[in-house]
Amino acid sequence: MSQPVGLSAVLGAAALGGCAFLAPGTTPEQRAPRALRGASQAPQGAAFGSAAPSALLGAGVAAAAVTACRAAAVKKKGVKVVHGKEIPWNLFTPKAPYQAKVVPNQKHPQTLTEDTGDANWETTHVTFDHDGKVPYIEGQSIGVIAPGPDKKGETPARIRLYSIASSAVGDDETSKTVSLCVKRVVEVDGKFANREVGEDKPDKAGTAFPENKVYRGVCSNHICDLSVGDDVMITGPTGAEMLLPEDPEANIVMLATGTGIAPMRAYCRYLFNDKVAAEGDGRKFKGLAWLFMGVPYSKSLLYDDEHQEYISKYPDQFRYDYAISREQKNAAGQKMYIQTKMAEYAEELWELMQDEKTHIYMCGLKGMESGMAECFTPIAEKYGKDWAEFAKAMKKADRYHVEVY
User: Fold this and answer.
1) Phi-psi region of 189 (alpha: psi -120 to 50; beta: other; left: phi over 0)
2) How does pLDDT run across 221-277, given as a tens digit for each residue?
3) Cβ-count burial of 78 within 10 angstroms (0-12 exposed, 13-18 middle, 19+ buried)?
4) Domain boundaries, the chain
C-alpha cells in the first residue's frame, strides 16, 4: 500500500538546485572543484512556513507531486545531495561501467616506489582518460573491474574501490582524466595462494616468485600491469566521508599510511597546485594543511617531490612530517609510526583541534584510530578532557573523517 506524500517533502524534492557538476564540453574553469561543490541549496519558500487551507490541497498538490516526482527521478541517477550540495554519484555502475583508457602521465612514472626486497614493494600511479564523462570531487573513489577470474572464480572479477589520487580537474587539468595510487598486492607462502609453485610469472615490474606459492591481488595486479593504451572498466564516483570543507580558512590535518595518501594528494593538488582552483573562481586557501605520512621505508615515500615543492612555495600553509617505521626511531628508541611522530607535536596539534575550523582526515590501514587515541589520550587528560568523547564530538561536527581498509 502506498503511503501519502507530505507537501513539504514533495516541494522539497522539486526545490533542489541545478546540477552541481557540469556536462562534458564545458571549460576546465567551469569544471573547477568549487563549481562542483557550488550547487544552489533548496530555496526556502514562504509556503513552508504557513498552514495551507485544506481546500488548496487538491489538484494543485497532485500536480506538484507529479512534477516533483519527475524531478526527483531525474536527480536520483548520478547525483547525491550532501550537506545541501549536489555531488556526482554512481554515474557508472558494475552492470554499466565506463570504458576508460590508460594514458601517459607527464608528472609521474607509473611505478612510484623502489624495490625494498619485500614481495609487495611496488606502488603505481596510473591515469585513466574518461573524456569528461566521470566527473568527481576530491575525497571520492572510483571502482575498477578486473577481467578476472577473482578468488571466487567470478569473471569479471568483483569491483574494487580505490580512492582517487588526483584533483577534480585531473593531473593534466583538463577535467578528462582520473589518477589512482595502487599498491600491488603480493603475498608469498601465506594463508592464501592463487598460484602454485612454478606458476608465478614476472609482472610488469619484473618481479616473480616461481619457487613459492603466491597470492596476487586480482584487481591491484590488473591495474599495476596496465600499459598506456589499455582499456579499463571503471564505476562511480562514490564516497562522501572524505570531502573537503567549504571554508577556505579551514585547517586540514591529514594522516596517511601507504596508498592512503591518495585522497591527501588530491586535496593538496587542489589547494596548492591547480590553476583552476586558485584563479578560476577567485578562491584562495587561507588555512593550514599539515600532512603526516607513514611508510616502512624511505624508498616507499609517495609524492615526496610534490610535498617538498609545496613546502618551498607555501611554507606558512603546508607542513609535512613522515614516519618511516623500519628506519626511524623516536627519542625512546621506539619504531617511528604516525602516532609516535604526531606525539612530538601533541601540544600544537591539540591546540589546533580546539579550533572549530580544523578537520582531521585519516586514510590507510585499519588501526589508525587506535593510534590517534594512543597519541592524544594523555594530552586530553592533561586538559581535563576525555579523548574518546572529544573525537566523538568532532565526528558529530563533521570534522573527523576516516577511511580505512
Assistant:
1) left
2) 999 999 999 999 999 999 999 999 999 999 999 999 999 999 999 999 999 998 765
3) middle
4) 7-87, 98-238, 251-404
SS3 271: helix
Using an 8 Å Cβ cutoff, are 326 and 296 in contact?
yes
CATH no., domain 98-238 = 2.40.30.10
Instruction: List b or e across 338-365, with b for residues whose CB sees 16 or more CB atoms inside 10 angstroms.
Output: bbbbbbebbeebbebbeeeebbbbbbbe
**pTM of structure:** 0.81
- Alpha carbon 297 to its chain centroid, in Å, reads 24
Overall fold of domain 251-404:
Rossmann fold (3.40.50)
Write out the catalytic residue numbers. 162-163, 363, 403, 405
Instruction: Read off the amino acid at residue 289.
Output: A
- Note the pLDDT tens digit of each residue in 142-183: 999 999 787 777 788 899 999 999 999 999 999 999 999 999
Residues 320, 304, 209: CA angle, nearest 5 degrees: 130
Instruction: Tell which residue, 9, 7, 4, has the closest CA to residue 61.
Output: 7
13 with 72: CB under 8 angstroms? yes
